[in-house]
Write a structure and sequence with these properties.
alpha+beta; OB fold (Dihydrolipoamide Acetyltransferase, E2P); two-stranded antiparallel ribbon; 10 strands; 33% helix
């Protein structure tokens, strides 16, 4: 397990702490990015105003992350058991390995829009079931660690498919 390799003699190594913190930061930044995309595409959310310099920098950072996924992301299909949905992260159990996937907040199923939480409330999907996700994969390899990020744009369980509501289209060639 990941935790067994992280904890040595009951204490976490400094390098491992740095890796875990870096991975958490990537998830937090990517989640914020997805939230800003969804807020811009949702009808009931009023348009955001950016008055201060700090807000403009945040918007530019989020846009840069989106474009990094779009320009550098590699299509990747993930198949695993959906175990947790929290905010904009879907946790999959793939052969005993925990994989966190950044997922948009709004989805379309049979011409109906659903929030991520509504999508996994038992109708049409339910936690504990095997899901197939179409994602864009970003991977950053360093000397001591690798950070892997997934951004889901399609979810399928059995014959039911949900598509992410995004301001752009993603097609796998």
């Amino acid at each position: 397990m990941l935790l067994e390799s992280v904890i040595v003699g009951g204490k976490m190594e400094k390098k491992t702490k740095a890796i875990v913190i870096a991975m958490l930061m990537v998830v937090v930044v990517a989640s914020g990015l997805v939230l800003s995309l969804q807020a811009a595409s949702a009808e009931e959310v009023p348009p955001q105003t950016f008055e201060g310099r700090g807000d403009k920098r945040l918007l530019k950072r989020r846009e840069a992350i989106i474009w990094r996924f779009v320009k550098n992301g590699v299509p990747e299909t993930l198949v695993g058991e959906a175990s947790v949905v929290e905010r904009c992260v879907l946790v999959l159990d793939i052969q005993g390995k925990v994989v966190n996937v950044v997922v948009p907040r709004i989805w379309v199923v049979d011409d109906e829009t659903l929030t991520l939480q509504d999508l996994f409330d038992g109708d049409p999907f339910d936690l504990g079931k095997e899901v197939t996700l179409e994602t864009l994969l970003l991977e950053s390899v360093k000397d001591t660690h690798t950070v892997t990020s997934y951004f889901a744009f399609s979810i399928q369980i059995d014959e039911e498919t949900a598509a992410a509501l995004l301001p752009f289209n993603i097609e796998v060639n």
